[in-house]
Amino acid sequence: MIIDVHTHAPRFRTRAEAEAAPPPPETGAPMRPDRPDPSRVTWDDHVAAMGPVDRAIVFNIAAQPPGDPHKPGMASDGIVRRTDLAQAVNDNVAGLVRAHPAKLIGFMSVHPRDPHVLDEMDRATGDLGLRGIKLGPNYQNFDPLGDDAARVFARAEELGLPILMHQGTSPVQFADLDWAHPRHLDRIATRFPELRLIIAHFAHPWQVDALAVIRKHPNVWADISALHYRPWSYYTSLRLATEWSVLHKLLFGSDWPVASPQETMDAIPHVNDILEGTRLPRVPVDELLAVVERDALGALGLD
């Protein structure tokens, strides 16, 4: 069974709604080097892209609560509407999942500084049926080692909710890079050892630090989303994962709509192509292909 653990819920239900929205302004460096950032995608686009996979986890990111003292960590409206609070984000995700229950598994998003965060976690699980959490410490501008985050982690561990954490770089000026560094997850996983965590994007470009974390913590994984279109980084991170014996701790993810499940799968056999004519060590493609079929639902307690 192929599980895509990393896809974003479109904020537009229909093509007409998407076309009526104003285009997002330029926000600096694009998310990937070979194409513009996607913005006007719809529910139908999401479902069509998920054709090659059996199940997909879908989510979005909740904005900072009203009156929050930190600058917004999210860019202008694109995949995410940066003013959408947790309730609106979670209602949209739940609606998409209800429309395609055999394919999709919904994750909520909450903001740790929201005074009603625990109530929203209860609503999202009990009323909406969402089964995990997506957090982005840099995009949401919260300290992952702070007390606000700890209460979210504690409740997630209590409820058995896995958390996918955006980790790694961002082109958004006010998205705090340090708060998205994977070294912090070492302390989180030590404090909450039963909490299942996914390091999104293998924490690019800090894959070395991410592999150190997944190597020591049995309930911490990394996904391979948004890696393949930077071929040198893709190769080096997976070669390091090979040398440190953590290929078995990687999960398949695409980061749709930034990349699709199909192109992410298609890239795997080509990971060593840039080495032609060299004696550099190869990534074992057969072991990497096993990532695609890995039992991600079992690993995350969602089976």
Structure report:
The chain is an alpha/beta fold. The protein has a single domain (3-299), classed as Metal-dependent hydrolases (TIM Barrel). 33% of the residues lie in helices and 10% in strands. The chain is built from eleven helices and eight strands. A five-stranded parallel beta sheet has the order 4-5-6-7-8, with helices on one face. Strands 1-2-3 form a three-stranded parallel beta sheet, with helices on one face. The longest helix is centred in the first third of the chain and has 14 residues, at 86-99. The chain starts with a strand and ends with a helix. The mean pLDDT is 93.
CATH class: Alpha Beta
Could you tell me the number of beta strands? 8
Shape: globular
Structural class: alpha/beta
Give the CA-CA distance, first to last residue.
Answer: 12 Å
Rounded average pLDDT: 93
Rg: 18 Å
What's the main sheet like?
5 strands, parallel
Compute the number of helices: 11
Walk across the major sheet and give the strand order: 4-5-6-7-8
| Beta strand % | 5-15%
CATH topology: TIM Barrel
Contiguous low-pLDDT stretches (5 residues minimum) are none
| Level-2 CATH architecture | Alpha-Beta Barrel
